[in-house]
Amino acid sequence: MKITGVELRRIAMPLVAPFRTSFGTETERDVLLVRVVTSEAEGWGECVAMSEPLYSSEYVDGAAEVMRRFLIPALTALPRVDAYAVGRALEPFKGHRMAKAALESAVLDAELRASNTSFASYLGASRDRVPCGVSVGIMDSIPRLLDAVAGYLDEGYVRIKLKIQPGWDLAPVRAVRDRFGDDLLLQVDANAAYTLLDAPHLAKLDDFGLLLIEQPLADDDLVQHAALAKRLSTPLCLDESIESARHAAAAISLGSCSIINVKPGRVGGYLEARRIHDLCRAHGVAVWCGGMLETGLGRAANVALAALPGFTLPGDTSGSSRYYATDITEPFVLQDGHLPVPTGPGLGVGPVPEILNKVTTSTEWIPS
After folding, report:
1. Are 169 and 186 in contact (CB under 8 A)?
2. What is the pTM of this model?
3. 120-340 is classed in which CATH architecture?
4. Which sequence positions are flagged as catalytic?
């Protein structure tokens, strides 16, 4: 395929409720969408960078700028392009994995639409539906948390993840366990809010039979995670620390984790996400698919990825209504705690034009 042009589209997506983590609170998503037009088809990608560089060093304005100045010109200069060519062409540019992932996804979507192949079959999915967990943000009170968890369980979610931070950890976990019992699949996510000095405190979470503790320490410290892992009986899971298959290999070698949360945007795209899946599967390390409050476009690709055989734990692939009153695609609706894997060409979904236009705040066309 030859790229004839790329559209950068910004949309504003209000959340149905504020989503609070240890690093901040979101009430609206400022989403950067990428539409790649080629000689054979067009494809969509979603950049998962946040408005501010809080989860990682990337942010939406920066992603748009690096695409505009460096990444898109590198791709449009190619005489022919496919998803693997994207990685080779963009490798000289350091970092900016979320921006690269969005471009790779859009090119792959176009490539697969042209060949009438679904994301799921291309990636190697082994299931036609995936179990869904839900991420529950930090709340103002324990009663509000319990009401929220009860509502998600009533909707059918099969696993609950609680965001935690110092001062909001043992009490909410204990309350959820006491209210909903030991059979509930429960895990926690700290988003790097603790230090190794907190190890004795974190060890108290061992009493609650959690599936895992996600990213308790700094994202750039695999060594201290390895030290912490030896002091806990609860499995450690890494998120922000894993930006590539090389990082995953290092973490496994050091004993920094026994579970990895795979977020395609964080690792530079779905091809690298699949490499991490293959590596972890070969070493007996469980993986699951994380979420970044994606619209239906990003959710479709994540559900396809989560259908690979190594994804043995429920991911954060929640239904559309978890975050948005109206999604930009046909909504993903939970069915018995699962989401169906799209089977159509490419992502298997596309934006609904009327809805997309309503939420669009700006567009920019970059010709080849």
Report:
1. no
2. 0.95
3. Alpha-Beta Barrel (3.20)
4. 163, 263
